[in-house]
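Handoff note, outgoing to incoming analyst
You'll be picking up this chain. Sequence as last confirmed:
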Amino acid sequence: MATALPDRNLALELVRVTEAAAMGAGRWIGRGDKIAADQAAVDAMRSMLDTVVMDGVVVIGEGEKDEAPMLFNGEEVGGGGGSRVDVAVDPLEGTRLTALGQPNAIAVIAVAERGAMFFPGAAVYMEKIAAGADTVHAIDINATPTENVKAVAKAKGRRATDVRVVVLERDRHDELIGELRQAGARVNLIRDGDVAPAIAAARPGTGVDLLYGVGGTPEGVISAAALKCVGGGMQGKLWPRSDEERRALVEAGYDLDRVLTTDDLVAGDDVFVAATGVTTGALLRGVRYVNDGAITDSIVMRSRSGTVRRIEARHNLSKLTQFTGREY
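Most recent structure output, in case you need it:
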């Protein structure tokens, strides 16, 4: 039986999902409780997902059903009907960022044709490098950080000292950070949340040229979906945390030396991504509360058309509560 391809811009429906998640989490910004913030985002996202006309299955979610009372891998989402699609969700990318009131927390969802998304199995982490359309041809995850900085600088027609690289602040990145700085790059260290910087690397005026280092594999798949829409790209390699995890991946048939490209991570041509800012960062402004409601800032992307929309929405929270039965 042939799968019906998406024939409308699902992202324009999905942005309501990420807006709801962002407003759910927004009330917890700076309150020090990342679990409550994440749960609020998940609850809001799930309730809104049921209104989207699609036959979706979560491929990248919160783990297996018996391990997470959230949007779990294998969960069926959507209102039924419409296209059969894979769904990748991160209701709150940057739970700790939200709890501490720090930049770059977002709510994000990606949708692609059924079977298009890479399933990482036991691989929680992957090494990755992401860049924009003007430099994606120059990056090589098997090259040294110095070589990549020089290649990106050459592709952009800049000096190495003008290359701006975002890296997660982790002990495992000490050598990477040192070499990037030695090569002349300006390194911006972030505590959490590498999806927004990956997208920012492909957007003009964000102050980000590269995302580099080891981060979450689910986040890598979501980033690849977004980069497929905005014209950038990424490379990744699975990064097992232990010998046990390495064995599990090899036994499951994963090639740990394989370089995963954007198309490997998301194979389809019909990809939709929506993201809404929770806290203000390089990509999006966070949720802002005003006397009569809230204002959200979102980005909406579709790969087939290459259209990227920026949506600022003003929400009347009292009407939303009446309409949805949820308090924002």
